[in-house]
């Protein structure tokens, strides 16, 4: 290219000087001005209308700090797009923290003799969540009810007498919350007749078997299936209000009653309940930015209706009284979100904060393309953080999700109410990027990409070239929430060109009570996926799982993990070059883990395992289940003794060592229960330090100690088997 002449340079400079700067419209809470200036700011709706009249330049709608109480969503459509190469930006003013809020304050609290406080609720408001001075309260709940008492059928449930529900003053305000494997159900009680309960429809029918509209033909996770074991709890009854921080909504009296936590003064407290759904809706827009804006107290109304929450997977539900036969989840319903983007192009959401929501954070759907959610924070959400795409495997071109990005976000404590929700969900997307996000403290899976369960209508789809890279995912599939069969990263469907790499995963289903909960879970028809260069530690079951023979050509290579896993199944799948059974992460793995996530952070280093070099033995051996399988560094291989009084397994470390902790990993059938862990210097255990475990060992049970020992024995206190996947003996910290 020839050098630019002086005249050309001057002409270019004049062109730059002539280009107008952005038009700035000023917005403030409760403003009523029309000029949208600093002196006379306007409302968000007035600023939107003013922006539509501006052409030939960028537009910036700057929101002053404070709370914008919305009774309906702020709607932005095609007319609110950037035009002719320009952009429209909705942003926080410099140094400001504006918040779009769907909350309604509840006031006039009065105290009762029992220490509870009650307030009237305005018409049109149904409090499902309550926040007191910003802290989430919990709907009053009771204990679990086993299937032997609360026997669920297609038409309802027994147990009204034993649970006391038959005598409750307002049982029809209460809900049953049921968790079956990966599903979560919330259905309101519709009636009580003797010992029998019926539930709101269509919630109960959609939660039961026989609809021909939910799950693959083999699915056995409905409320009336053999997998159903109990009602996790009933909630929202005055009779259950017994713990500080709980509340009850009475639909007949139109009141909320709350039992304050220590230090809460209800005479001065600010109490909010989410009322408005979808605080911002972007529909058919393009070249639009949303920056630095907060979204809080958005509602999710469906679960409080007769539709209830008939959970299917990942926070989606089955709704409606009828519908087409569907075993591939094509007609499931996504949760309501504070920010919804539909059919839009080049929308960029950044620096936003989503908190205290009754539903989800963001939904990108209906053919949204080239759109991003970046550098935003999500915390204290009833449902998931980000939902990308839809459930139709072969959409029309204009409805296909393509080239969307979810990156550098921080996601913590989502799925607070609907525990089947995931942190980031994507349906049938192409060229999706999920990169450098930090996800922590989630009840179910962290990141889920793909859909369809190998059903015929979903076997060929638009899924392809997706990237799940450099994310930090910790403390997911938390076992106390009883959601099973998931993973830190979960995939479905054939998606050629998809890569899962550079992620740091630590503590997924850790302390599990079943043989599930994975690191990277290539479920069902997951195919053509490359899993490489990930660091995966402290996983309740498998670091990588690919069990289905119809998932093909998946490849796992160059990963670092502290266990091992069976080979990938399916034609053409391979596992090679992985660094497994580690008891210390090497420097290169620590560096990969430290770079992962929104901000980067050190990895949790593994602790040395003294048992690896020891000699294992057991009181007897059932078949080929040798004692050495508990010291091979692999949590997917199991030891097993015969059933006998005082059955034991032990390891000889070779010489006495100062022991700081013993990890006991039960076998995959959760066999070992009611046992002593004995640590001794001598082989006769005469000088043993004994730690007792009541009930079943977990995966793992952690036992802290400070004892000098050469021999560590796990011995039943009664009759049965000892069966173990792994026993680690960690030296005392120095």
Tell me what the structure shows.
There is one protein chain. The chain is mainly beta and 734 residues long. The chain has five helices and 62 strands. The strands form ten sheets. It has a 13-stranded parallel sheet with strand order 1-2-5-24-29-32-36-40-43-46-49-52-54, covered by helices on one side. Strands 3-6-25-30-33-37-41-44-47-50-53 form an eleven-stranded parallel sheet. Strand 16 (183-193) and strand 17 (196-199) form a beta hairpin. The longest helix is centred in the first third of the chain and has 13 residues, at 6-18. It is globular, with a radius of gyration of 28 Å. Pfam families: F5_F8_type_C_2, GH141_M. Residues 558-578, 599-643 are annotated as: Disordered.
Task: Give a concise summary.
Residues 558-578, 599-643 are annotated as: Disordered. By secondary structure, the chain is mainly beta. The protein is 5% helix and 38% strand.
List keywords for this structure.
single chain; 734 residues; mainly beta; 13-stranded parallel beta sheet; eleven-stranded parallel beta sheet; 5 helices; 38% strand; globular
